[in-house]
Amino acid sequence: MPPSGLTGALELLAAVEDRCAAAAYDALDALAGDLRALVVDALAGTAVRGQQARLAAGQPVERATRALPGV
Fold first, then answer.
1. Nearest in space to 64 (alpha carbons), one of 22, 11, 25
2. Cβ-count burial of 62 within 10 angstroms (0-12 exposed, 13-18 middle, 19+ buried)?
3. What's the half-sphere exposure (Cβ side, CA atoms, 13 Å) at 40?
């Protein structure tokens, strides 16, 4: 079912970013070197984009921020 309205779309975007962060976090143990650096960068990016989407959806900062993204 597609989201209804802008807020729903932003919340869906935040949820997608959270799941991407979880996948990146899960992959870290098996990686090293340049590939690990790439995944760490992706994890940071998903955290920032997820927070931005939650803030744009109107969530307060304390709810929009994840202390440990991907965990």
1. 11
2. exposed
3. 9
Domain ranges for the chain: 20-71
**Nearest alpha carbon to residue 31 among 42, 20, 45:** 42
pLDDT, one tens digit for every residue, the chain (71 residues): 788 899 999 999 999 999 999 999 999 999 999 999 999 999 999 999 999 999 999 999 999 998 888 88
Query: Nearest-CA neighbor of 42 among 17, 8, 71?
Result: 17
| pTM of the complete model | 0.88
Alpha-carbon torsion angle 58, 61, 67, 69, nearest 10: 30
CA angle 23, 29, 35 (to 5 degrees): 75
